[in-house]
Amino acid sequence: MKHLLNPLDFTVEELDSLLKLAGDIKDNPQKYAHACDGKKLATCFYEPSTRTRLSFEAAMLNLGGSVLGFSSADSSSAAKGESVADTIRVISCYADICAIRHPKEGAALVASSHSTIPVINAGDGGHQHPTQTLTDLLTIYSLKKRLGNLKVGFCGDLKFGRTVHSLINALIRYPGMEFVLISPEELRIPGYIREDVLDAHNIPYKEVERLEDALPSLDILYMTRVQRERFFNEEDYIRMKDYYILDKEKMQAAPKDMLVLHPLPRVNEISVEVDSDPRAVYFEQAQYGVYVRMALILTLLGIHVD
Ligand code: CP
């Protein structure tokens, strides 16, 4: 039985197959409409979510399966003190596969070690968000026609932004990658990503503070929101929250074929006037999230459609 806890749980070859399957699902949705007839997905979300939970649910429904679950810790027996380990043992009796989001780093790993069904990490604290990474990889592959030989700028809250940590981990496995890490000093990428991931693999990168300086040379700009829920005090959040705002004027300095990605939700970091720019693909990215989660459910359940 396979789980997805970290983007590196799949080899590059397995990821290639998954992305190809997602592409086929996009082009031939009817072929997959009954692939999960009789199967159930549990969504156990201890933290708020719109895209991840609902795209998982849409994915399972598109495959002919059913969904059950909870959307906050308060509406589950976690509010009475039940552990993740006990909860997943019970969920294993009710569902065939489970997607779990939890504010604590490592919660999905704990769940997987007590589960008899595949567990998918739908975000664990500031740690990893592997299905967002699959979404990002599919978006890049579909729109840039390649993974590799890309200069990617990550901008915003690189300290707490788990989507950034997961995507860097995944992208370094492709050749010719280069990163520009754009953040204020206080929100720099964590040391373990810099040292254990980037330095350890000799990946070229630079850290800068000004978005304007980085923009002209990028193939992809990955914007992130400042993660209010991970700050210890509100004053720091308020000081940092509007540090970067991508607007029409700044976009003039960006290459014509640069893509703007954002895992969403967006707060202020991308002005709504940018939404109509053809380079702004973040809503398309959210749609790719359904196809890739359909492919993931099929893969983890070992279901093949001819
Ligand atoms: N991108 C993402 O994880 O969005 P949600 O928090 O809405 O699931």
Question: Main attributes?
Answer:
306 residues, alpha/beta, five-stranded parallel beta sheet, four-stranded parallel beta sheet, 9 strands, globular, binds phosphoric acid mono(formamide)ester
Structural notes for this entry:
There is one protein chain. The protein contains eleven helices and nine strands. It is of the alpha/beta class. Helix 4 links the parallel strand 3 (97-102) and strand 4. Helix 1 (12-27) crosses helix 5 (130-144), helix 5 (130-144) crosses helix 6 and helix 5 (130-144) crosses helix 11. The longest helix has 20 residues, at 282-301. The relative contact order is 0.16. The mean pLDDT is 96. Residues 49-52, 123, 132, 263-265 line the site of phosphoric acid mono(formamide)ester (CP).
Helix count, DSSP H or I runs of 4 or more residues: 11
Listed once per kind, the bound small molecules are:
phosphoric acid mono(formamide)ester
Strand arrangement, major sheet: 7-6-5-8-9
Helix content: 25-40%
Category from helices, strands and their pairing: alpha/beta
Determine Rg (CA atoms, Å): 19 Å
Main beta-sheet strand count, sense and barrel state: 5 strands, parallel
- Number-wise, the strands total 9
Rounded average pLDDT: 96
- For the terminal residues, how far apart are their CA atoms? 22 Å
The geometry reads as globular
Could you spell the SSE succession in H and E letters? HEHEHEHEHEHEHEHEHHEH
Low-confidence stretches: none
Proportion of residues in β-strands = 5-15%
